[in-house]
Structure formats: C-alpha cells, structure tokens
Amino acid sequence: MRRKGLIKKCAALSLALIMSMGTLAGCGKGGDSTTDTLPSQNESKVADANTDAKGEPATTDASHPNEARSMLTGKWVPADTANNSPVCVMYSNIKDAIPQSSISYADIVFESLVEGGITRLCAFFENKDNLVKIGPVRSCRLYYLFLAKEYEATYVHFGYSDLAEEYLKMDKMHSLDGMVYCGFYRSTDRVAPHNAYTSWQGIMDSVAAKGYPTTYPEGYRSPLQFNTDDNNDIDLSGDPIAQKCNKFVPGYPYNKPWFEYNAEDGLYYRYQFGDAHIDKETGEQLAFKNILVKYVTGDYVDGTPDYVNSDAGMALYITDGYAVPVTWWKLEEFGQTYYYGADGKEITVNQGKTFICYVEERYKDNVEVLP
C-alpha cells in the first residue's frame, strides 16, 4: 500500500510539472537514456549500467584499462578506487568553524538546516588517503544517517542528536563517533566544539577496528545516474521547461549561501557569509558541476528537524547554466532517492562533483534561480 501511494504521488507530481510548464520534455539531453520503470521493492540491489552482474564497477571502454566509473562522480578512476565504499563527514558550518579543512576534496556535499537556522554539511569522499586534517567535525543528525546509508558510506561525526541515537545502534549503520573512537584530535587554533578533526588514516584505522566493509555490497546502485558520454555534457538549453541559471540561491537564512556559474569551466562556485567558500588547507573555492535541490517536509522535535525520509516531492536539477524542475521519490527510509523528469524517466546528471540542498517546502519561496 505504501508503494502504491508513493507511485500515485510521484505521478501527480509529474503531472504538476507538465501542467505548469506545458510540456512533456525530459530533463537531460545528450546523455544516455534511462529507464522509465519505477524501482523495485529491493531497490538497493538494483544494478545500473556502471556495475556488472556481481555489483563490481564495470569497465566497458577499452581506452580505460583497469578503470571504472566512480559511483560519486561518474568519472573514470582506478577500478579498486571505484569499488571502495565512501566515507562521509559531518562538517560544522557556522562562522566560528570556517574555513573548513579538506572539504574541497569531497565528491558530493549535502547541506541542510539543523537548529536555529544554521546548516551543516555532509561531505562524501571516495578515497583520499592524503588528507591529514578533515573537519571541524560535528554531531550527527538523523536524516544524514539515511543519506549515509544511501551511499553505503561510513558516517563520521562527533556526538549525535537524541533523534539519531537509536538508529546509530542498528547493525546496518556504519558510523564513527569522535566521542568514542580514536582517530580524532583537537586543534589548538580554535575553541571547542569547533576544533575536532580527523584524518583519512585515522578514519581507516577506526573502520578496520570496527570491521566495517570497505567496498560496495553486491549489486549496489548509485543514487546518481551519470551521463556516460565522456565528450558531451547533458545539455538542458533546448529543454522547454528549463530556465537560465547563472546564479542560484538556496535561501538558508544564517549563512546566506549562493552559487555563481562560470561558463569557462562549466562549474558553479559556492559562496557563503558574504564571501567565497574556501578550503583552509588548499585555499581553493568549492565548485560543483551539478546542483540538486530536494524539497522536503517534516516536523521539529526539540528544535531539531525530523524530515519525512520516505516520500515523494519536487526538486530542481541545475547544471551548465540551466535549471530544470524534476521530482524525487524514495520508497524506504534506508532505500535510495530517485530523480525523475517530466517525461517520467529517471534523469542522468553530468559527470563531476555534486552539491545537494535539502530545502523545507515552507521555505520554497526563498529559493532563487537567477539568469
């Protein structure tokens, strides 16, 4: 019954896209086609075009020997790297905590409200064994736990909210809490709680001590389906429901972030607190090929958001100077999120780094897509 209800809701959302835009045009052009069939009940076991029958990353291009496509970026990487399950780190994102360390190495970054209008960032890393300072690391929130599971990631945090406590005890959750495990340290250049850091070696040592898996499970399917054309980006410019997007504002009230498109390299550069969002270790500004905006609903428990995790809703996909409305749906709280265009097909996104914003439906009017 739950599945049927979500299918009906997703269909209604797709119809809303069609009615508001007056077209059935799809989200992506120039990439590989995707299925218009809704995912199965056992969605975490559905293999995609980037995995073989055993769930191992597949190399189908003779020009890329011993390589496979990354589950996080869609780019060619060494085959053993592609099969390594990621690590995600909960970053503090208040003014006292910036600039953060090593966040520019992340392949996917999520941002969502926590308490009092502030946001936290959850950064997903594929294999970054050269990183010696990652953080500052802050406490877990429940909805980020579900995200970690979508990507089969080990979730690195320092403490947790009351809502997350029971979920952290589940065997299926692979998490490292800096209040319990080694591999974390305090820096002397900031005061607590914004001075807790870790390193890649510290994380890997703790993963080994816990006996957590370090590779994707058999049949794993990436939540993001990437364009497999290495020479041509997905082009939204000819899509009748797309609009120009040279600046995007997600509308978070405290850090007031925004993204600006650079047509020369095709990336969206991130700003917050009135200035460029910089990595302390590299001096580089954070930049992304894709932006996804997922509109969510939920309640607050003792001031902490408790978002509805398995549902369907509206979303935006932004890349290469254009934005297009899409829909999302997720059948189970520990399942994966799927994004669909107005034509009912699962969308593909461009190869590269992705930034994903969770925006509450009630704050939807604060989002700005600017030409």
Automatic annotation (TrEMBL):
**Key words of the record:** Signal
- Highest classification ranks of the organism: Bacteria, Bacillati, Bacillota, Clostridia, Eubacteriales
Keyword Cell wall biogenesis/degradation listed? The answer is no
Renumbered to this chain, the signal peptide range is 1-25
Where are the stretches annotated Disordered? Answer: 30-67
All residue ranges annotated as the DUF3048 domain in the record: 72-212, 255-356
Instruction: State the organism of origin.
Output: Bacteroides pectinophilus CAG:437
- Is Signal one of the keywords? yes
Q: Where is the composition biased (Polar residues)?
A: 32-44
This protein's source sits in the domain of life called: Bacteria
Looking up SUPFAM superfamilies in the UniProt record yields:
YerB-like
Q: What is this protein called?
A: DUF3048 domain-containing protein
